[in-house]
Write a structure and sequence with these properties.
This protein has 765 residues and is of the alpha+beta class. The chain has 19 helices and 29 strands. Among the domains are: 2-146, DNA Polymerase, chain B, domain 1 (DNA Polymerase, Chain A, domain 1), CATH 3.30.342; 350-577, B family DNA polymerase, palm domain (Palm domain of DNA polymerase, Alpha-Beta Complex), CATH 3.90.1600.10.
Length: 765
């Protein structure tokens, strides 16, 4: 036997050798190991149906092991099932599909679990785990020991070799002329004029540098499919896999509906033995980058290529599947728990969602922003809220506020047990992050990891009520929101009892004001009191020098819950719901609004804001002049909007749909959920799709449309100062000596005359 140690890079099934394991060795070598890995799944149903399925499986050319056994169902308890053992991991998916097609009436368990998750559950592995291996001279794996855990706060980094490839332009907009390659510190350009030279050049880089990760731009949707087509057309071998026995895995594009919106997932190209990540097709890559992707891969057990492209919800599902396999709990192929019957009154009472107060609109000084730390996951963990514990009859129960149903506290819930280490790790990393200077080289890494873990915790609550969640149940989802409303009300009562005015409540946060409360120490007694009354961790997000809560743009009498902006004491800003945060705002408008807000942020107090209006007016007039003189690059005027449905389904074409129709006429089809970039133009159809082959006529730009958008964006942040769109238009025609002195900040609206009276509060059960 030979001993090896290093980092686990990749795991996948092989039709001949079972499981293939790639190790990045401590000596710098990348080695391929293999071992047999039987896969087990289960079927349940009537004895007659199971007997027929048994006979069917016996007749199959693939020899499988069959047995009758009892396994644990999360909701039903012990369940008698037929155990089906498939000797080859690669053969199991096809056998299961055939069996399910032949016997659709059976219930199947552990049937469609991805192979890397099975391997992870068995060996407690995860991507980039530190491992010690023993193998024979033929590289057949005999023993595998994991030396760390996914919950280590500062794991030893793996020396991953990254090859970055980027074309000189967006392939959807133009034809790239060359590729820029970054292999470590080496940088080179590869012209695309000669197909033979391109393939030979890339083959040389792959063989010479031997990257562990190929990080591309448009690699899924253009580069790798194009290279594979060139290889076939010119009969020049090109296989970007490290494992030469495998073919490149390609998945088709698709659109799907989730959480009230249509989502588009582009074509995917995945490799074996090394990773491929397309930064333009990786979900959430813009939020936390490669470091965040690697962190999610560690804690979820999903391969790096998979978690990069999938939503954080798939990560939570993977964690639950691994936990179920390790605890011997059956993973149903399809969700089996339906919502229990409720009367109309019960349904209204249960489905109230999170608590939201209408904010006190206008400008406010010295406002403390208080946030519960991962409120809903904390509630699930603290109160043991899980699909199998909520509404349980057996065991010691605690009644959920406002719902009148009990939570079984006699056993640890499946979902809280899954979330506990995730919550702890994020909390510890966030504590480290707060102690680091923003200039520290580790700051960005920890920030990305904290953000990646945050998104996993954000979606875990929604998956409790998701219709397709394997371990979801709507009653547990409703229980979390019920506790959330109670927790926020207790926090509000605590604030008012201690002399604070509550300006706004929003699901898991409070905005409070108290004259003289301008230091962190002034809020510490309030935080301690809230924790004492609720049992949920809470922190001070920051103290605003000033914050503005904005009303509806259509009716100034109507507050909007999540539309505000403010400046913290350290000068940083926070904005929600205005153009700067919208994905369909063109860069020029967003940048101008950000610049105007930056001018206002220089005001240390509310009283200094009028002194900044002159500078704001000058900045706005400069932006307006650049728009009318044609100085703004067309790329800065691009509007990006989603196409929500197929073009034939539109009754009235939106601007995005009109742009998509232009592209369709030249053979570029747009799928529902895809974004279309366009310019606003004069005349019919009013838009110009950016990805058309011809260049747009700059003289035909609809400047007035952009002017309206610019004024609207400026008005959003100036409205709390009493400045309306008509006033901003006066700035446009004003002379150089024009003064903004006449404007004064309007008095804030009076606080509501009625607040629910504070009552003595009991600790939450």
């Amino acid at each position: 036997m030979i001993d090896y140690s290093g980092w686990l890079l990749d795991v996948y099934p092989d039709s001949e050798q079972g499981a293939v394991v790639w190790l990045l060795g401590d000596d710098g070598e990348r080695r391929r190991f293999y071992q047999p890995f039987p896969v087990v799944f289960y079927a349940a149903g009537s004895h007659a149906e199971l007997r027929s399925a048994w006979q069917y499986l016996k007749q199959q050319p693939l020899r499988v092991g069959l047995a009758r056994t009892t396994r644990q169902d999360l909701f039903k308890g012990p369940l008698e099932v037929m155990q089906i053992t498939v000797p080859g991991a690669a053969d199991q998916p096809r056998l299961f599909r055939n069996l399910a097609r032949q016997f659709p009436q059976l219930d199947y368990y552990d049937a469609d679990i991805a192979f890397p998750l099975r391997f992870s559950a068995w060996y407690h592995t995860f991507p980039l785990a530190r491992c010690h291996l023993q193998a024979n001279e033929a590289n057949r794996l005999q023993q595998l020991e994991v030396l760390d855990t996914p919950w280590d706060l500062d794991p030893e980094p793996a020396p991953i070799r990254v090859l970055a490839i980027e074309p000189d332009c967006d392939p959807a907009h133009g034809r790239p002329a060359y590729l820029t390659l970054h292999a470590g510190r080496a940088k080179s350009r590869l012209p695309l004029g000669n197909a033979r030279a391109v393939l030979i050049g890339l083959n040389a880089v792959l063989q010479g540098y031997d990257p562990d990760l190929i990080l591309t731009h448009w690699g899924d949707t253009w580069l790798l499919p194009w290279l594979l087509e060139l290889s076939e057309k010119h009969h020049i071998a090109f296989n970007p896999n490290r494992d030469p026995k495998c073919e490149v895995l390609q998945r088709k594009e698709k659109s799907f509906f989730t959480y009230g919106q249509i989502v588009y997932r582009g074509r995917q190209v995945q490799l074996f033995g090394r990773w491929h990540v397309d930064a333009c097709n990786a979900m959430m890559f813009g939020d936390y980058g490669l470091e965040g992707v690697l962190e999610q891969a560690r804690v979820t057990g999903l391969p790096v290529q998979t978690i990069a492209r999938n939503s954080p919800g798939s990560g939570i599902t993977a964690m639950q599947m691994i936990m179920a396999l390790q605890k011997g709990i059956l993973v149903p192929y399809q969700k089996q728990q339906a919502e229990s019957f409720k009367s109309a009154a019960e349904l209204i009472n249960a489905d109230q969602g999170g608590l939201v107060y209408q904010p006190v609109t206008g400008l406010h000084r010295d406002v403390g922003a208080i946030d519960f730390f991962s409120m809903y996951p904390q509630i699930m963990e603290h109160f043991n809220l899980s699909p199998e514990t909520v509404g349980a009859i057996e065991g010691e129960g605690v009644t959920i506020p406002a719902l009148g149903i009990a939570v079984d506290q006699s056993k640890r819930g499946f979902v809280p047990e899954t979330l506990a280490p995730l919550l702890k790790k994020r909390y510890m990393l966030k504590e480290w992050l707060l102690k680091l200077d923003a200039r520290d080289c580790r700051y960005k890494v920890y920030k990305a990891r904290v953000t990646a873990l945050k998104w996993l915790l954000v979606v875990c609550f929604g998956y409790l009520g998701f219709k397709n969640a394997r371990f979801g149940r709507i009653e547990s989802h409703q229980a979390v929101t019920a506790y959330g409303r109670e927790v926020l009300l207790r926090a509000k009562e605590a604030a008012e009892d201690m002399g604070f005015t509550v300006l706004h409540l929003y699901v898991d946060s409070l905005f409070v004001h108290k004259p003289g409360a301008t230091r962190v120490e002034d809020y510490r007694p309030l935080l301690d009191e809230i924790i004492q009354r609720t049992g949920i961790p809470i922190s001070l997000d920051g103290i605003y020098r000033w914050v503005a809560f904005l009303p509806s743009r259509l009716d100034e009498r109507v507050p909007v819950a999540n539309r505000y902006f403010g400046v913290f004491q350290d000068g940083s800003t926070k904005v929600r719901g205005i153009e700067l945060r919208r994905g369909d705002t063109c860069p020029f408008i967003a940048d101008t609004q950000e610049t105007l807000l930056g001018v206002l942020s220089e005001a240390l107090t509310v009283d200094e804001l009028p002194l900044k209006l002159e500078a704001v007016a000058v900045t706005f007039r400069r932006a307006w002049r650049r728009l009318h003189t044609g100085e703004i690059p067309l790329e800065q005027l691009l509007v990006s909007q989603k196409v929500s449905r197929a073009l034939a389904e539109y009754r009235t074409l939106s601007p995005a749909a009109r742009a998509a129709a232009q592209l369709e006429r030249i053979g570029k089809n747009t799928r529902p959920g895809q974004r279309v970039r366009f310019l606003y133009m004069l005349g019919d159809p009013g838009v110009w799709a950016w990805d058309l082959p011809a260049a747009p006529n700059r003289k035909a730009l609809d400047i007035q449309r952009y002017e309206v958008l610019l004024i609207r964006a400026a008005s959003a942040i100036l409205q709390p100062l009493g400045i309306r769109e008509t006033n901003i238009r006066e700035w446009i025609t004003a002379s150089a000596g024009y003064s903004c002195a006449p404007w004064r900040i309007p008095a804030s609206k009076a606080l509501p005359l009625f607040f629910p009276p504070a009552v003595p509060s009991e600790p939450l059960p």
